[in-house]
Amino acid sequence: MSRAGMRKSDILGMGLMVFAFFLGAGNLIFPPWAGQQAGENLWLALIGFLATDVGLSLLAIIAIAMVGSPESLTRDIPGVLAPLFWIAVYIIIGPAFAVPRTSIVAYEVGVLPWISQSSSLYLALYSLLFFSVALCLCINPGKLVNIVGKVLAPVLAAVLAALYMAMLLQAPAEFGEGVGQWKEHAMLEGAVQGYLTMDTLGALAFGIVIVAAVRRYGVSDHRLVVRHAIQAALIAGAGLSLVYLGLFYLGGMSQGLVTDATHGGQILAYMVTHLLGPMGKVALSLVITLACLTTAVGVTTSCGDYFHHRWPRISYRFWVSILCLASMVVANIGLETLLKLSIPVVITLYPVAIMVVVAGILRNWITLSRGSMQAALLVIILFSSIDGLNAVGFLKGIEMTDHIPLFDNGLGWLLPGLSVLVFGWLIRSVAELKKRGNVES
């Protein structure tokens, strides 16, 4: 098996597993919102969204497969900051934001339409049931490929296909103008929405799970491991792109129908019921529950593996139990509050993750010095922190920020960080050319 690699059916199952892990709460609520806000510019917004969600997530999986471990990917982050970065990533995509969000979205979109009124007690009971099931699946991680990849993902895909068929049978939608920044900068706004799914952070965790799963099939050759990880990632990326295409269009259709929505979950719930009638509620509940549960299981398993390997004396079962318990507690604060709290944190940390992923891949073709990488990361964390403060309104009225390119779009870190990285690479390249010239002479 190690020479021939994995069978096509196993690779397909792996790709579906990755697809199901990614297709969670954020992936279902952010695209409809972006589509509605972008209006006639939704295709530009979709391009930006796909770049920062699907594109960067695939690169993160490939980078992890190439370097072999998270620690190798962050070797440029000095001293104790590297493990702190990974701990922060796993907490953010785990019990702090992403995993609790899966339970809240499953409740608000999949359950709330069926009951007359909501209450904190109902949410607490649902989150208890949700994370009890998630914990049972997390304790048996060896079954994830079969359970998630070969059972839940096809069911989820079939239900989504039925929703899209109903949508396509409607008259072609006429989209109105974009709202606010979406009117002039739809692609950049879509890119920021792609941030908020947290998929690139999740991909750093899933990459380890994918590599481990490939090796469990007996594949030991590094090139084959990388190849199969890329194949699985491409399958997942293709599936996600099709899902986002439909959800963006669904959001664009909703402009004149859902005028008071505060998040994409409300848009999705209304539109599915509008298109499919009473059966739409059943389909939506099934899709939301499966998608959110599989994401919760995938992320919690990855987090449990990471913390167990960092502190091996504490068992994996203990870690996943604590993570599920913490996620259940956080889930009870509600979706809108959780989204508001997560935005500045994600906007601050995400660019650092992007840089370490891009650098991990670029090093296969060019030489990047540790010093230039550290300088670029320092500049990026400085400007992304400013972006994060701006996201919560702390910097309103400060004229200095007007001179930062792309600052109004939440991407103030991009040009300064890339400029430092490119400048460092040019200095290194010129120095190497001079050194070669001296040797030859």
Word description of this protein:
- It contains 18 helices and no strands.
- The chain is an all-alpha fold.
- Helix 6 (98-110) packs across helix 15.
- 51% of the residues are buried.
Quick rundown:
This protein is 76% helix and 0% strand. The chain has 441 residues and is mainly alpha-helical.
CATH topology of the largest domain: Amino acid/polyamine transporter I
> What would CATH call the homologous superfamily of the largest domain?
Amino acid/polyamine transporter I
| Unreliable sequence segments | none
User: Using only CA atoms, what is the Rg?
Assistant: 22 Å
| Total beta strand runs | 0
| Top CATH class of the largest domain | Mainly Alpha
- What series of H and E elements makes up the topology? HHHHHHHHHHHHHHHHHH
**Count of separate DSSP helical elements:** 18
In terms of DSSP E residues, the strand content is: under 5%
Can you tell me the CATH architecture of the largest domain? Answer: Up-down Bundle
Number of structurally distinct domains:
2
**What is the residue-mean pLDDT, rounded to a whole number?**
83
The biggest sheet, with number of strands, parallel, antiparallel or mixed sense and barrel status, is: none
Shape: globular
Structural class: mainly alpha
Give the distance, in angstroms, between the N- and C-terminal Cα atoms: 51 Å
Q: What is the helical fraction, as a range of percent?
A: over 70%
Membrane topology: Multi-pass membrane protein
Organism: Parendozoicomonas callyspongiae
InterPro entries: Brnchd-chn_aa_trnsp_Livcs
Protein name: Branched-chain amino acid transport system carrier protein
